[in-house]
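L,D-TPase catalytic domain-containing protein
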Amino acid sequence: MAGFNGNWRSAVRTIGYRTGAVASGLLIAVAALSPGMALASGTKPGVPARLDPEVMLIDVYKALSENRLRDAQAKVDALVAAYPNFRLGQLVRGDLLLLHTQPIKTFGAAANAPADQLANLRAEAIVRLKSLRERPDPNLIPRPILQMRDDQKNVLLVDAKRSRMYVYERVGGRNGQFKLASDYYVSQGKLGVNKFKEGDQKTPLGVYYITSRLPGARLPAFYGPGALPINYPNEWDKANGRGGSGIWLHGTPPDSYSRPPLSSDGCVVLPNPDLTELSEAVQIGTTPVIISDDVKFVTREKWEADRQSANKMLESWREDLESTDPERLRRHYSRNFKAMRGQDLNDWMEKLKQANFGARRIKVELRDVTLFRYPEPKDQKEMIVASFTQDAVIGKGRHVTHKRQYWVREGAQWRIVSEANL
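Tokens:
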């Protein structure tokens, strides 16, 4: 898979034990871990391996794949001692205890639990271990990130396909590298992604920002140690009639370390220790949250070419705005333009004309520019969202406007399909 290291084989793995092959495949459900091919411990950045439940869990599977049952038992005992509310760990421990006395053929053989709960835990095991096998290539850059402001330290990338949040940190200046600082297992909407309306139990796709920090003391215990609301619906959502509200990044109830991959009403849910760590790292109103159905990666050379192309696109718009020629400016706008308050292209151009073209000459500068590829569904046009501060000298007056533009590729041209003053 482009941008990820490691291979994934979905076939159930049979692990040998004592006198014959023990079919514990659904215990592992997953792992495609054969002897000599296991993931090394401690590969998750920013978290000590001895404290990370996923790394502890992979060590259990490694021991099983090498027929070290006692070692696996000791490791899973340590896991549930450290994280007693980690239901997946408890389930694996129960199966391992049963495995001492008899072969097991199903995941959760030792558990007296409904089939749907076992299916949820199996799904969690699969995505957790898959994410540890498929690590983002450190030599590549996430395709959605084009340019960040100087004051933006990191960006949160939610990959719905992998039930994973990747936290990328900018290293160096605006044109510097991006480094994977940490990553977390996450849960999403019960019915997946691409939210459209209130109550559809889907997580939105798009580029958002964290708007506030809600402490756990002000919330029901269901949300864990707190919540980080995002600005869904954003300007593009509103222009397209998308509804709903209250999309948060939040934690879990005290009795649950984590939730199944598809289990929320639309929020992005993290284990409580991860939510606490994340909350300390984000900047309110500044940290972007990009929710995608499948994060792609590009080479640094491709990223640099794309970044320069996007900046040229924006610079051409600035020059034509400065020209005071409405027709030159109009060519940058799509015929399908729509603003979040329902204005069409003619309405918007009239608004720009009244604001900018009353003087013979205007001077426009753009600063604090951010550029992200918008993670639209696969059947939609390629899109870039640009946010910036516009400083305009019109006649004797100076005007400062915070803007956000949504650009779509129409053939060989990029055109603005929506715009908002923030």
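The radius of gyration is 25 Å.
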